[in-house]
């Protein structure tokens, strides 16, 4: 995962605001893991502040940085579970743990080796997802070149 325009630096006020919101999230005992294609990892529905999606919620300016941060956190968590820590994400993980220790994504059971099968399934799904995106890109390029030739 490369840096993009929506990445936050831990010393920015927006990072601290997002961390405060993550820290206030309530654990849903019914939440179950699902695959996030952009991080290639699993997440739980209670790990994202839903208020960011509503008109009454947080300003749109925080939505994409929050999603970006969460994808880094999900990817790092999965790398820990698979015993392949991604050093480029380590700083954000620890800074977020410091600023949002009660975020549901940090629950021990969600970071434990018991999640290995889920993490492996997500890693396999990430390979399929990436291949599908590559295929889509090839087909889109072909279509564009055919349309420009006509």
What is the approximate shape? globular
Strand order in the sheet with the most strands: 1-2
How does the major sheet shape up?
A: 2 strands, antiparallel
Counted up, domains total: 1
Low-confidence stretches: none
Helix content, binned percent? 40-55%
Q: Structural class, from secondary structure content? A: mainly alpha
Rg calculated over all Cα atoms: 17 Å
Share in β-strands: 5-15%
Question: Mean of residue pLDDT?
Answer: 87
Report the span from N to C terminus: 38 Å
**Count of alpha/pi helices:** 4
Oligomeric assembly? single chain
How many beta strands in the DSSP annotation?
A: 2
Helix-strand sequence: HEEHHH
Brief sketch in words of this structure:
With 150 residues, this protein is mostly helical. The chain has helices spanning 13-23, 60-81, 87-99, 116-149, and strands at 33-36, 41-44.
Provide keyphrases for this structure:
5% strand; single chain; 150 residues; mainly alpha; two-stranded antiparallel sheet
Structure description:
It is built from four helices and two strands, in the order αββααα. The chain is globular and about 55 Å long. The chain has helices at 13-23, 60-81, 87-99, 116-149, and strands spanning 33-36, 41-44. It has one domain. The protein has 150 residues and is mainly alpha-helical. Helix content is 53%, strand content 5%. Helix 2 crosses helix 3 (87-99).
């Amino acid at each position: 995962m490369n840096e993009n325009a929506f990445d936050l630096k831990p010393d920015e006020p927006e990072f601290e605001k997002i961390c405060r919101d993550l820290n206030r999230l309530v654990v849903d005992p019914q939440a179950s893991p699902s695959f996030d294609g952009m991080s290639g990892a699993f997440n739980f529905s209670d790990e994202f502040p839903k208020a960011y999606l509503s008109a009454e919620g947080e300003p749109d300016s925080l939505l994409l940085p929050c999603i970006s941060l969460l994808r880094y956190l999900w990817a790092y968590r999965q790398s820990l579970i698979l015993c392949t820590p991604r050093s480029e994400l380590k700083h954000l993980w620890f800074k977020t743990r410091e600023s949002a220790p009660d975020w549901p994504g940090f629950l021990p059971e969600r970071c434990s080796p018991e999640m290995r099968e889920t993490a492996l399934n997500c890693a396999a799904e990430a390979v399929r997802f990436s291949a599908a995106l590559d295929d889509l890109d090839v087909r889109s390029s072909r279509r564009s070149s055919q349309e420009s030739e006509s």
